[in-house]
């Protein structure tokens, strides 16, 4: 087929309209979310002392950290779904959760320690944290990748990594309501390791499935 | 001077793409015709810079055009068209060179008897789309063939295959999407 013929067929298909990447990403996440919530409800559940925990600012801080990861990651991944988009000028958004954690660690250090530092760091749930966050992330990661496939990212591995951050941020938000370790030191260590794992998976899968 | 001319050309593209997105099929056709020589030159240059013969430039051009078509919803109509277009073109060129890199490695053994500089000429200027077209489901292939090669309208194509115009449009769009997927994955 010569190029003029191809162009003719493309022009004939001009009326076809695709939905926006944001709409497909939202749909993908909404399809993945019930599965993640099912995993949460089956194996984890909200911690029993949640009412009193809510009076602890370090409990609330966990949600601020995880959502300040998930929401900017959604915004950046949508930005990167345009082929000409650059990461420059957007990456600082990902420093939000890092900054929040730093402030939280600083304020905890200034208070009289309720527990020794090693105990706060290691906590009681580190192993759970490392398996539960990735497990709940996977359905959301699949949904995010499905949504971003509708875009045209120039760097598929980077876009996949962002999908990993989105799903890990959302899964960690669920996990935070289960976990009784509220120390920012615990969050900075174990949530970060779990997130890095999911991000690596996202990058590896994204480099294959996000090519267009 | 040259710069002003390039700027003028790119502004014209942006205007045509806006009209196309607003439903003007003729503007879309004109836009694709206008960008093709620029894409072709870029593809040849890219192949030459990678030390590759230019004979597959047309395959790259067609892959770029298909990607432009299927990803045009990612273009922001407030933004200029050229940077978006060239980003897609660059990605497709890099992809192709990467794929060819592997194939070239195999080809070196196959053509070890060939004299240096003696490059087999390709008969068809764009073989890959034509090849993949043959692997599409019958209905999609018929519709694409009718509209692309025989230059029939959607209406005439519908009459010819006793299909509804809607069914022709669906088959055309699915055919183009399937073609793109096959080119990407093969």
The oligomeric status of these chains comes to: heterodimer
The chain-level structural class of chain A is mainly alpha
- Count of the domains of chain A: 1
How much is the radius of gyration of chain B in Å? 19 Å
- SSE series of chain B: HHHHHHHH
Described by strand count, sense and barrel closure, the largest sheet of chain B is: none
Biggest chain contact: A-B, 30 and 49 residues
Instruction: Assign an overall shape of chain B.
Output: globular
Number of strands of chain B: 0
Biggest sheet of chain A: strands, sense, closure?
none
Helix content of chain B: over 70%
Proportion of helical residues of chain A: over 70%
Poorly predicted regions of chain B = 102-124
Give a structural overview.
The complex is a heterodimer of chains A (212) and B (186). Helices cover 73% and strands 0% of the residues of chain A. Chain A has 212 residues and is mainly α. Chain A has one domain. Residues 102-124 of chain B have low confidence and may be disordered. By secondary structure, chain B is mainly alpha-helical. Chain B has helices at 2-21, 25-49, 57-70, 81-110, 127-133, 138-149, 154-160, 165-185. In chain B, helix 2 packs across helix 4 (81-110), helix 5 (127-133) packs across helix 8 (165-185) and helix 6 crosses helix 8. Chain A binds chain B through residues 1-21, 81-84, 151-152, 154, 211-212, and chain B through 20, 23-26, 28-29, 32-33, 36, 58, 61-62, 65-67, 69-71, 73-76, 79, 83-84, 86-88, 90-91, 95, 125-126, 129-130, 133, 144, 147-149, 151, 153-154, 169, 172-173, 176, 184. Chain A: Pfam families: NrsF (PF06532). Chain A: Keywords: Membrane, Transmembrane, Transmembrane helix. Chain A: This is DUF1109 domain-containing protein.
